[in-house]
Amino acid sequence: MANLKRDNHYLPECYQKGFTNASGQVWVKFAGKEPEPRNPKSVGRKRSLYILKNEDGSETDRVEDWFAEEVETPFAALSQRITTEQEKFSEISGAELGILARFVASQLMRTMGHKESIEEQAGSPVDSNTFVRVMVKKTWRLMDEWIKNPPNFYFYTSLPHVADQFITGDSPVLVMHENYSPVWTPTAQPTLSITNLEDILKNPKHGFQLSLSPYICVCLQGVGGQVRLPPQTVDPQNVRSFNDLIRGQSNLFTLAKDAKSLG
Questions:
Q1: What Cα–Cα distance (Å) separates residue 101 from each residue in 75, 125, 158, 226, 262?
Q2: Which of 18, 178, 181, 225 qualifies as a FRET site for 34, CA 20 to 30 Å off?
Q3: Are the beta carbons of 126 and 112 closer than 8 angstroms?
C-alpha cells in the first residue's frame, strides 16, 4: 500500500508535452493568477483522485495503472508524431484512430470538472469510488457507441497563421451539442450546461473537439467513420473562438505553449 501511485494526473503529462516549449515547460494560467511556466509533472493532478477502496478497506491504484497502460502510453507515441509533423500530419491507422478515440473519451470523463458536475447533480460531494464508477461507465458507454457507429475524425490546423495557437485546460474536451429550435436565428451564442451523454449521442449534430498541440485540433463529429487529413486550415477567428470556449469551461487553469496565447 505504501507504493500506491497517488499523484493522479487528470491532465496527463503525455498530453501536456504536446504544448511544451523548447525548455520542456508549459505555460499555465491558474484562476486569478498571471501565467507562469511549469513542468507538466506538476500540473493537472490531484492527490488520490483515482484511488479506490476495496470491500476489506484496503486501497488500490488499478485505475491509475489502466490509464497509464491502456490510454496514456499508446497516446504518447501518436501525440509525439502529430506534434512533430504538424500540418503535414497526413496518415493515421485504424489502430491509431482507436487510440485517439479512447483518449478523447477518457479525457472527457476523468477531469475535476466532470467530478463537479456529478456532485452538482447528486447534490453533495461524492467519494473516489463513486466518481470512478461513473467515470468508467460513461467512458465505456462512449467508446461502445463509437465502436458501433464510428464518428468522423476531422483534423484542423491553425498554420500557417503562427500567431494564433490552440490552447487547452483542466477541461480540455469541448462538447458541441446543438439545440434545435423551431424559430430560425442567424447566430447562436454558445452556453455552458450539464447535458446527459445519451442526449448528446442522439443528436446528429454533436461533436467532441480537443486540441492536440498548439497547431493541431481534432473533432470527432457525428457518424460516418470518415477521416479528413491532412489537417484543414481554419481561420484565426475560429481558433480564437475555440480558445474562448476552453477558457469558459476550464475553472482551474488554462495551458498553452506560450504566455501570450493564454490572454
A1: 10, 29, 22, 13, 27
A2: 18
A3: no
